[in-house]
Amino acid sequence: MDVGDLSPVERTTLLTEYARAVDARQPRPILGDPLADEVVRKIDYDYSTLGVTPSVRCLVALRARMLDDRVRAFVAAHPDAVVVDLGSGLSSMVYRVDPPGSVDWYSVDLPGVLALRSALLPPRTGSHTVAASVAEPGWCDAIPAHRPTMAVADGLFAFLTEPAIVSLLRRITGHFDSGAVAFNDYGRVSKLNRITGQLAMRGSNSPHLQWNFAGFKDPRQPERWNSDLRLVEEASAMFEPETEQFPRGLRAASRLARRVPAIARKARILRFEFARS
To answer: Which of 66, 130, 156, 203 could form a disulfide with 108 if both were Cys (CB 3.0 to 4.6 A apart)?
Structure first.
């Protein structure tokens, strides 16, 4: 399937999906998502231009596994939940989590991405799509507001501006009565590091060229933006058992992370809860 009509920002979905696919091909996968591998094999694209190194593959797979675990726990506690996958791309999280039929799952992304998603992923009862930019108002209007809701974002925030993230979080707590928000974060990425990375990727199709948001120096920053949010978890991928499967250099960094918090913050999941008063 050709993806030549996708815009550069829409093509950012290919990096994470390809990383999950390569993980699925490993003898000991971290995430183990064979559907991701099926999807990327159906797309006509030169994935070698994306810059998916073994370290990127491991970190993408591990953060997906960590987010899956948190969505499963939320659904187990709230069988009538609504799950909102923000910037869902081609992610097969709904198939991995496999929620009961009482759960409604909404995949929110740009129209071109969702058209590709609908063509490549099988239909599933209780699964819905919302073709809209999460940076614009109105994307949540058609989603039920009065059931426990978990909003999850895997790899999305890096491609949004800070004002767009502020608005997105306020829109979530303003529309839904109660629930949780979970997403991956890289800690604070300096401007110099971002420029260096973009220069290194020049001439490639790497989604890193679309990077906008520098990450959170303080994980409680969203609480200051939005008083309805309460930080309940900061979990570093560097402390997970799967770090034993990391490439040598990244494995060494994971060990060092226990003594250097800045390293631990480079690959983490942040989870917030909210309830309308």
So the answer is: 130
C-beta separation of 15 from 207 below 8 A:
yes
* Residue 53 tokens, joined: 């190194």
Please state the rounded mean pLDDT for residues 146-169: 96
* Residue 23 contacts residue 32 (beta carbons within 8 Å): yes
Kindly indicate the confidence band of residue 2, based on its pLDDT and cuts at 50, 70 and 90. Answer: confident
CATH of the domain at 268: 3.40.50.150
Tell me how many domains the chain contains: 1
Percentages helix, strand, coil for the chain (3-state, rounded to 5) are 45, 15, 40
Residue 241 included in any domain: yes
**Helix, strand, or coil (residue 218):** coil
Give residue 57's domain range: 10-275
Task: Return d(Cα 29, Cα 230) in angstroms, integer.
Answer: 33
Asked if the structure places residue 4 within a domain, the reply is no
- Pair 94, 85: CB distance under 8 Å: yes
Nearest Cα neighbor of 43 from 115, 129, 95 is: 115
Give me the DSSP letters along 193-248.
HHHHHHHHTTTS--GGGG------SSTTHHHHH-TT-EEEEEEEGGGSGGGGGS-H
191 vs 39, residue with greater confidence: 39
Distance, in Å, from the CA atom of 96 to the CA atom of 257, rounded to the nearest integer, reads: 29
Q: How far is it, in rounded angstroms, from Cα 149 to Cα 181? A: 8
Distance between CA atoms of residues 18 and 75, nearest Å: 27
